[in-house]
Write a structure and sequence with these properties.
The protein is 38% helix and 10% strand. With 126 residues, the chain is an alpha+beta fold.
């Protein structure tokens, strides 16, 4: 009896975990959050006459309270922003910021995901 109860609990936990992993925020919410982050970078650029060398500088400068949480299907949720030298996709399912001044994309915040949203658009296109 005890073993059946443990097995049922384990099965329920696995089902919940699979559901969490396979679902995510809708595209409108993701784009709204991404837009807010891009506005924060733009405000930083206006104030400092150049993009930040790290996305964290926008938070330290007061242009954004914190990076918003992102939860895409087939990825775990995160509010971390990875600083990367160029716009390459590692499919982390999180935010990324191009921080190399030599890159043509310097100052760009983007979604590091190669999957499609619910309307068939790649998350990386936003």
């Amino acid at each position: 009896m005890k073993l059946r109860l443990i097995a049922a609990a384990a099965l329920a936990l696995c089902a919940w975990g699979a559901r969490y992993f396979l679902t995510g925020m809708d595209a409108q919410e993701v784009v709204r959050r991404l837009s807010g982050m891009r506005i924060a970078v733009t405000l930083y650029k206006i104030e400092h006459k150049k993009p930040p060398v790290s996305f964290g500088e926008t938070v330290r400068a007061g242009n954004l309270e914190a990076a918003p949480r992102l939860k895409l299907p087939r990825h775990f949720g995160t509010d971390r922003v990875r600083d990367v030298p160029s716009q390459l996709f590692s499919d982390s399912g999180g935010w990324a910021y191009v921080n190399d001044p030599r890159s043509p994309a310097f100052g760009l915040v983007y979604i590091d995901c190669v999957h499609k949203d619910e309307k068939g658009r790649y998350w990386s296109e936003f």
